Amino acid sequence: MTAYKSDLLRQLDARGYIHQTTDAAALDALASKEIVPGYIGFDATAPSLHVGNLVSIMLLRRLQQAGHKPVVVMGGGTTRIGDPTGKDEVRKMLTDETIEANISSIRTAFEQFLTFGDGPTDAVMVNNHDWLGKLGYIELLQEVGTHFTVNRMLTFDSVKLRLEREQPMTFLEFNYMILQGYDFRHLSKTMGVRLQMGGSDQWGNIINGMELARRMDGAEVFGLTTPLITKADGSKMGKSVSGAVWLNREQLLDYDYWQFWRNSDDRDVGKFLRLFTDLPLDEIERLESLEGSEINIAKIALANAATELCRGGEASALAAETARKTFEEGTSGGDLPTIDVSTEISVIDALVALNFVASKKEARRMIQGGGARVADAAISDENAVISAQAEPVKISAGKKKHGLIRFG
Hints:
The chain is α/β, with parallel strands linked by helices. The protein has 18 helices and 15 strands. The chain folds into three domains: 7-226, Rossmann fold, CATH 3.40.50.620; 253-329, Tyrosyl-Transfer RNA Synthetase (Orthogonal Bundle), CATH 1.10.240.10; 338-407, RNA-binding S4 domain (Structural Genomics Hypothetical 15.5 Kd Protein In mrcA-pckA Intergenic Region, Chain A, Roll).
């Protein structure tokens, strides 16, 4: 590890957040002597962010913990265009009402991780539509467009990917990097923001913004990116077998969120503890040194700490107790995913309704393979039906997915 002087870069380095920085020594010196406002942008394409966005949220949390100011930029303007980075198709256009509703919903997740307010290190959330929406087209071309060359824009991976695959890229999307660059310049000029952070795929966009701020205003600003966070099996963070791992409770139950972390690969536990929890580094070193079945202690610690950050201590404790009862005592915890039915439901429909499988065809395969159980008894009949009972009925898919059927 590099011998940084500032608390900010020391912590980011020790926990594995740093992939690239534009001028590490100058940023380190700046962070050692004054409050550094830093921002990350998030587009509002859904009512919730997911675990794939969590490393960026934690980066803002670390910024605030080190005594600096997090600026959350919601892309009310850029969401109307769509970031082509890593995409090979045109993004679906959303209405203004949908975007505003998404931003309002997403803010509730940020409030779990950051302290918002009017103080010098309090987090703020801004909407880039407030300034991008006021830009006239001729003004944008004259003031900003002259600082970008098409030659260079064509070299960016987000553009090259589309061109190489001979897939359409609209002129609207082609402008995304210009507008994101303008965000950094605007925030630097109006709010004194000195640092933009993001994933490694945003490096080119960050450099664009830095150069624009320097050329238009002579501002000294910095960029920092995190490494691409993948799971040990090579898959992206943010996805599970049953779909996206959403941060908002309305999109994903507390128990399912807790279970996502509990089911982490042994090889990921140490990395995830550093990135996604506030546990001290010496405690993390102790936990990741556990071997054999004891690694489950570390996984539970990860699930508890990560869920507490995102959903609160009560939700984390309830999910952990539900898991304990389910796996250790064989009973059904009250926080398991639940569906309500009136009279009866087929096992296949129940598996689909609980999102344990993606289709009825997959449910049939699970039953044929002996992976489906009702009240802890294996089900072999594809036509099996669960009839109305006074008490909720436990249904399981494999060893790790459990739910309840409640009749009424």
